[in-house]
Amino acid sequence: MGTNARKSIAKGVSILSLAGILCKLIGLFFTVPLTRIIGSEGLGIYQSVYPTYNLLLTLSSAGLPVAVSRMVSYYLAREDPRNAHHVFRSAFWLLTGLGCFFMILMLAANGLLTVWVKEPRASLGFFAIAPCLTIVCSLSALRGFMQGQQNMKPTALSQIVEQTGKVLFSLPLAYFGTRKGLAYGAAGALLGITISEACATLVVAVLYFRKRSAFLGLPQRAEAAAMSTKRLAYRLIGIAVPITIGACIVPLAQFVDSVMMVPRMMDAGLSHDAARSLYGVFSGLVIRLINMPTALALAIAMSLVPAVSAAQAVHDEEGTRQASDQGIKLAFLIGLPCSVGMSVLAKQIFGFLYYESLKPEQFQTGWELLTVSSLTIVLFTVVQATSGILQGLGKQRIPMYTLVAGVGCKILMNYILIGIPGLDIHGGPYASLVCYSVSMIPNLYFVCRYTGLSFNWRDWLLKPGLSALGMGATVFLLRSVLPFGRIFTLLEVGVGIAVYLMAALKLGAISREELSSVQRRLFRKGRSAKSTASEDNGKGEQR
Question: What angle do CA 498, 502, 504 make, to 5 degrees?
């Protein structure tokens, strides 16, 4: 079981990581032209709407998909696909109902929301994004069902459809909307998100219906009693509520930021327009760049929940420890080089994407913010991985409490730091560093406590840390001698990746077998797409 758990995690992480990287690259083709179309002020309007939408979406759909994934993997490990499918059906209707409720709430409270975010021009954006709440809730149930079978391909495919849809729909709608004003441009971009999510939901629904009969034909343990809908619903809600509360903490903090940051910068002496523009640069450009490597963190977390839950279902303590150890190792192995590399090359990376789109003072503020904000990547990656482990163990209340503590510190620090003249928006990244540090440390402690793991400082911290430092020193030297330009930025990034991989291999942070496995998946993926689809039809969703 331990070997299978490691393989399923590695496969799930590789599929979702590749999809996540591709999605973030596609996302850049959305962000860069969107910034040019609606400008930093229009981006500020867009970002006034998005945190509220994200908070309501998290309240309605964050916990139940994880609960579905965990319960489906649990029942499949016990050879009980009947109850696994019953879990999905119950969650699907529950999630869709919640999505409808929050959609109606956003539509009805439109005027109040524009007052809260202190941006009257955001009204159209709230109307445009509201239907997306129902759509994504239905999509989340389908994804949770697939992930519970440790099949990450539908999730990966739907993520690519989402991002591609943003480019195809949001940008034209933003362009034509801007002809009538920035409010229409921002609303057009948000309407494009709603359309792209609808397309992603349609794709996953087709995959589900194609493979449902194969899933229902899986061997059923005769003595397994059928669970009542009421009992399953209670169990789902019992798992989902703490996860939802924990998951909504960060969007809640973003919502508070959208309400608080602009007034606090005005308290620090900035005008409303200047404050709104800086908030747009920070939340719309810097945070979006930070979110690129955090897609890998989400991939680790999504793969860990069903793997740990399946090991728990058959009382495989060694499998649980191996899965947990690998998950934390991957988090540091991915997070550390991303933090160091993006921080050292912050000016080059930010300039590669936004140099021509921003005023000189906005550009300088943006890369300075990115230099510090990049350091949160490794902290967030480990928080996500440890949260996934604890959720798989049935300890979902712990990451909820640690995030509450971390975000409480973030809100307090933001309020204090952003109101200081001369510091203003630059206080935001430091508040985030405090937030994720406060969450990460107790998470690591409780994972070690409940799995029996020792803190593996050599494999988790020392080896990837030294590799990342070597990479950072190399790109710092390159940055110092090479001119500022896009071609040189690509060279610096490429050299940094090569140096990190060589150092990681030399120090034993990653083995040649692990690296070869990733390469095989990369090259096999394109060659075997058609054969995989036909093979899955015969085997069903069991992995």
Answer: 115
Tokens found for residue 235: 């169990």
Which of 341, 346, 319 has its CA nearest to residue 503?
Answer: 341
Compute the residue count for the chain. Answer: 543
Contacts of 213 (CB under 8 A, 6+ apart): none
Give the closest residue to 133 by CA, choosing from 92, 171, 97, 87: 97
Amino acid occupying residue 30: F
The CB-based long-range contact list for 212-219 (8 Å cut-off, 24+ gap) reads 214/537, 214/538, 214/539, 214/540, 214/541, 215/81, 215/85, 215/149, 215/540, 215/541, 215/542, 216/81, 216/82, 216/85, 217/540, 218/76, 218/81, 218/540, 218/542, 219/79, 219/81
Of 253, 288, 299, nearest to 373 (Cα)? Answer: 288
pTM of the model: 0.68
Q: Of 91, 54, 85, 297, nearest to 197 (Cα)?
A: 54
Angstrom distance (rounded) from CA 491 to CA 484: 11
- Residue 530: the pLDDT is 39
pLDDT, tens only, 430-488: 999 999 999 999 999 999 999 888 888 898 999 999 999 999 999 999 999 998 888 99
Whole-angstrom distance, CA of residue 491 vs CA of residue 472:
14
